[in-house]
């Protein structure tokens, strides 16, 4: 759902999806950043609190 190739992006902007994808699929095989879902989590939290 976060991938830029996702057919159902759940309403996240391409900018957010790109950031998440870059933090998950890092070059060098370093694995995901520990905070890779922080930004989308904040967006969802704020949306649900409206």
Automatic annotation (TrEMBL):
InterPro entries: Cell_Polariz_PKAAnc, RGS_sf. SUPFAM superfamilies: Regulator of G-protein signaling, RGS. It comes from the Eukaryota. One of its GO terms (cellular component) is mitochondrion. GO terms for biological process: intracellular protein localization. This is Uncharacterized protein. It comes from Bracon brevicornis.
């Amino acid at each position: 759902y976060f991938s830029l190739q996702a057919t159902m992006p759940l309403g996240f902007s391409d900018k957010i999806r790109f950031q998440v994808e870059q933090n998950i699929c890092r070059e060098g095989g370093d694995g995901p950043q520990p905070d890779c879902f922080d930004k989308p989590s904040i967006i969802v939290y704020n949306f649900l609190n409206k």
